[in-house]
Description:
The longest helix is centred in the first third of the chain and has 12 residues, at 11-22. The radius of gyration is 16 Å and the shape is globular. It is of the alpha/beta class. The model has no long low-confidence stretch (mean pLDDT 94). It contains seven helices and ten strands.
Amino acid sequence: MTGVLRSADDPTAVAQAAEALASGAVVAIPTDTVYGIAADPSQPQAVQALFALKDRPEGVAVALLLADVDQARQLTDALASGPARRLAERFWPGPLTLVVDRRPGVSFELGGEASSIGLRVPAHDAVRALAAAAGPLAVTSANRHGDPTPSTAAEVARGVAASGLLVLDGGRCAGDPSTVVDVRGGQVEVLRAGRLPVEKVYAVLAE
Length: 207
């Protein structure tokens, strides 16, 4: 069995993906970096299914992909000022994940530390449309933990989505994942170098 392929450019496919997420299912999506698998973070069983498909250790947190900065502001106060705001204003939408302190009451179980959360607004129209329709998306790359990430929807459909999951086909998605920057407490630490060059991050902070 393989995943069900639908074009990410088809609004009805995006609506179908939003319905699947609302039902607690996992879906596979293209992004501006690599293919990912997504779940509704408000449904713990869906996030557990995401971790199981990925074979991901529970201590390794997954980030949220968002429709826009306004959606991000519902989850953290960090974007009001300081380095988080400056980096988001310059690099969102884009390949930058910001690790921030959660706003009180945000209780998503995403692995890792319960007080922090990774947020990103991707430069991909279909993903932002999906997040606008379904809410924040808990997303991790569409590969088994430690394996290479597939670069095509067909490979995803034969791999982690082979149990019949919906796969939005966005063409080839290959290259580096997002750059991850921890900005908790007003301090800045690059946790993972990725598609966004680290020197550009520091250049913005130095302005």
